[in-house]
Amino acid sequence: EGLFRIIQEIPSKKAEPFKRWLARVGKERLDEIEQPEKAIERGRGYYAAKGYPQQWIETRTASIDTRHKFTDTLKEHGIKAGHEYAILTNELYSSSFGLDATSYKKHKGLQKNDSLRDNMTPLELAAVIFSEATSTEIINETSPGTFVETREAIHIAGNITKEAIEKIEARTGKKVVTHENAADLQSPEILKQLAQGSLPEEEE
Questions:
Q1: pLDDT tens figures, 70-118
Q2: What is the 8-class DSSP label of residue 113?
Q3: Residue 35: pLDDT band with limits 50, 70, 90
Q4: Fewest CB atoms within 10 A around its CB: which of 28, 69, 192, 198?
Q5: pTM for the complete prediction?
Q6: CA distance 87 to 101
């Protein structure tokens, strides 16, 4: 923010392109406040520009919506954003996949600041969507009164997801949680398979 303010104060003509860019970005954000769907489309565009397949983008967009509903439900039941959200998210990952967020990132060869969900396959994202949606439903139905009770509700939802994952793996003979990350998801091979409609079962 400080850097942007400095740019705005620079009288040089060389700073004009940056000033125009700042004005355009500001207008885009105001437009998105009036029409939130524009923000969603902007996000889709960013993912497409990074080389993600369309199928992945659709699933990722759905996961963002489910995440917001999940966190809104946590807030409504007295859970504080930040540390408590992180603990409950780790509970969801651990009970669903057997890995907390840190271990999951290591499994995929990611750095600490990398986005885990931006490096998941469509099937992994679908499993997260299911787990968060199930957690939201259980929390709304049971109305837990404490953090511990909320964590238990999420643990139950995670176990339901875990059972579903085990059935998928038994049926397909493939692991749902993979080592694949964004580099693999954006590879020419994956894009070609999507275009030909022959994506491996693990990615569907």
A1: 999 999 999 998 999 999 999 999 999 999 999 999 999 999 999 999 9
A2: T
A3: low
A4: 198
A5: 0.76
A6: 10
Phi-psi region of 133 (alpha: psi -120 to 50; beta: other; left: phi over 0): alpha
Tens-place pLDDT, residues 118-136: 999 999 999 999 999 999 9
What does the H/E/C string look like for the chain? CHHHHHHHHCCCHHHHHHHHHHHHHHHHHHHHHHCCHHHHHHHHHHHHHCCCCHHHHHHHHHHHHHHHHHHHHHHHCCCCCCHHHHHHHHHHHHHHHCCCHHHHHHHCCCCCCCCCHHHCCHHHHHHHHHHHHHHHHHHHHHCCCCHHHHHHHHHHHHHHHHHHHHHHHHHHCCCCCCCCCHHHHCCHHHHHHHHHCCCCHHHC
